Amino acid sequence: MYKAAVLTVSDRCSRGERRDEAGPLTASLLAEAGYLVTETAVVPDEQPAIEEALIRLADREHTALVVTTGGTGFSPRDVTPEATQAVCERMAPGIPEAMRAASLAVTPRGMLSRGTAGIRGGTLIVNLPGSPKAARENLEAVLPALEHGLKMLLGGPADCYVTREERIEKSAVPR
Predict the structure, then answer these.
(1) Alpha-carbon distance 5 to 104, whole Å?
(2) Distances from the Cα of 9 to the Cαs of 68, 112, 117, 158, in angstroms?
(3) Best CA proximity match to 54, nearest among 88, 23, 27, 92
(4) 43 beta partners
């Protein structure tokens, strides 16, 4: 079981003007997938505040997976990807590529998400959109692969290549 945290990035939610829906939904999806969600928090759309929270969750709390919601659009205040890139040592471009591909299957607006993903120490940080519907669609697109990525990141045994036969065998119902 991996520790996870959800960080909602929203000016209105941080001021109490709007209820956070994407953060709790994301935390619920992670818990259902077997993650131990140790923290949920809300910060305003301010790059220093986002960076500070990401650094604390990675470096001091040793959270394996930090998922952000919000701040990934085109608004001038949407700076979550920039904050994530600023604190990460390595980027993981396949994760947001998969999320955008899944979103594009639903709406042409899926290409407008600027979400990113990267690694800081032993922490994987993934940006989701702030809409609950889009957050769900994006997380569900990548959730099956995240555990494998975390195993590799944290030094556990994780075979990168799985044959079609092995996938079938692993998905077979025990008799």
Answers:
(1) 27
(2) 7, 17, 15, 32
(3) 88
(4) 9
Using DSSP's 3-state secondary structure scheme, residue 67 falls into strand
The β-bridge partners of 69 are 8, 128
Q: In whole angstroms, what is the distance from residue 94 CA to residue 68 CA?
A: 17
Residue-wise pLDDT for 69-87, tens only, equals 999 999 999 999 999 999 9
Q: How many domains is the chain built from?
A: 1
150: domain CATH number is: 3.40.980.10
Question: What is the rounded CA–CA span in Å between residue 126 and residue 68?
Answer: 6
> What torsion, rounded to 10 degrees, do the Cα atoms 130, 134, 137, 142 define?
-40
Enter the pTM of the model. Answer: 0.90
Q: What is the pLDDT of residues 12-60, one digit of tens each?
A: 999 999 999 999 999 999 999 999 999 999 999 999 999 999 999 999 9
Distances 30 to 23, 93, 112 between C-alpha atoms, Å: 11, 21, 24
Listed residue (50, 60, 34, 61) closest to 83, CA to CA: 50
Domain of 22 in residue numbering reads as: 3-171
Location of structure tokens 């935390």: 27
Q: To the nearest 10°, the Cα dihedral for 19, 31, 146, 172?
A: -140
